[in-house]
Design brief:
Layout (H helix, E strand, L loop, with lengths): L4 H15 L2 E3 L3 E2 L6 E2 L10 E3 L2 E3 L6 E10 L2 E9 L2 E7 L14 E2 L9 E9 L4 E3 L3 E3 L1 E4 L5 E7 L3 E7 L3 E2 L3 E8 L4 E5 L6 E4 L5 E11 L9 E9 L5 E9 L10 E8 L5 E2 L6 E7 L5 E4 L10 E2 L5 E6 L2 E4 L2 E8 L1
Parallel strand pairs: 3-13, 22-28
Antiparallel strand pairs: 1-5, 2-4, 4-9, 6-7, 6-10, 7-8, 10-11, 10-12, 13-16, 14-15, 15-20, 17-18, 17-21, 19-20, 21-22, 23-25, 23-30, 24-27, 25-26, 28-29
Length: 335
């Protein structure tokens, strides 16, 4: 039986992991962060990579932890921690990491765009056993603001007109905007790639915008339709890191004979309201020129803020109200 080079390499890696008596990885950011926020600067809380180690024999000790930074598949920096010797940093990591740490983690003390890269760590025990973690892509995301600039939209019985402008993001962000329905399984009328306009800034960050895009509404438009615009950054493996999603619910706000559309906004499971307001109620009210809009009862004024533990956030745009949330419970109740 003949094996390919890739298969042999995989089998060798498995053999090392099984026989070495030490398990390593996966590489991760401290505090369960998904990316480093450039605006927060370098700190133990914001910019520390961890190399988890599991010892099969607790009497053994870690002698060396080695970190390697890869750019375009090639080694571009390294950091080595040893239990009884000075630490060493080279390449892109030289002068940018905390060399005083005694735990084998990699703490970035400066944030630079070129530190967006793949990182791997390996561990050697005092008995010579060794194991290595797979490479993991680190994103350092720089935004020029903490929210989306959007003029929102205007709704009538037959169409929804929207304009949108995002803040600039580095690295180049992923944007989506359009009519969304869970019933239909996602976006069913979306701003196409060629409709987005871009502004590219000297530091490489990119802002996206479009103006006066019209979305049609008819009798076939699902009742759970909402208008969603989102900004994120996509990793090389296709994983999307969501920065913010703006949800506008005026899309299908309209009266129907014998009843009124009502809407409730709450935080999704796993998130909690940060403040005195934990639910918002809205009713569909008629506005000028045969348009309709969601309005909160006077007794229900306030801001609902849902705290997300791992970065990224979601907001909903309503008349005179910007609230943070993760999901919508939309119910029609007859009077």
């Amino acid at each position: 039986m003949r094996f390919s080079a890739a298969t042999l390499a995989l089998l060798a890696a498995i053999a090392v992991s099984v026989c070495s008596g030490v398990l390593v990885g996966p590489v991760r950011l401290a505090h369960n962060k998904r990316y480093i926020t450039y605006q927060l600067g370098a700190s133990p809380e914001n910019s520390t990579l961890e190399c988890p180690v599991t010892l099969e024999d607790e009497s053994e000790e870690v002698d060396t932890v080695s970190w390697v930074l890869f750019k375009d598949g090639k080694e571009a920096g390294s950091f080595q921690w040893r239990s009884n010797e000075d630490t060493i940093a080279t390449g892109l990591l030289e002068g940018r990491v905390n060399i005083e740490l005694d735990v084998g983690s990699l703490e970035l003390t400066e944030l630079h765009y070129d530190l967006n890269a793949n990182y791997s760590c390996s561990v050697t025990l005092t008995n010579g056993d060794t194991a290595e973690a797979e490479q993991w892509e680190l994103l350092i995301i720089d935004t020029t603001s903490n929210h989306v600039y959007s003029s929102g939209g205007s709704a009538s019985e037959c169409e929804y007109k929207s304009s949108f402008k995002s803040y600039a993001v580095y690295p180049k962000p992923t944007v989506r905007s359009g009519m969304y329905s869970a019933t239909l399984g996602g976006y069913f009328d979306e701003v196409a790639a060629e409709e987005w306009q871009t502004t590219v800034y000297p530091n490489g960050s990119v802002a996206y915008y479009y103006n006066d895009r019209v979305f049609k509404i008819d009798q076939d438009t699902p009742a759970d339709t909402k208008f969603i615009s989102g900004i994120g950054v996509t990793k090389s493996d296709g994983t999307l890191i969501i920065l913010i999603t703006e949800i506008q619910y005026n899309t299908l706000c309209k009266y129907e004979t014998g009843g009124t559309w009502r809407m409730s906004v709450v935080c999704e499971n796993g998130y909690h309201a940060d403040g005195d307001v934990d639910i918002l109620e809205f009713e569909c009210k008629e506005g000028p020129n045969n348009t309709y809009e969601w309005r909160p009862p006077l007794a229900n004024l306030g801001n609902l803020k849902c705290v997300i533990n791992e970065g990224g956030r979601v907001s909903v745009s309503l008349p005179s109200l910007l609230v943070l949330l993760l999901s919508l419970l939309l119910a029609r109740s007859l009077q």
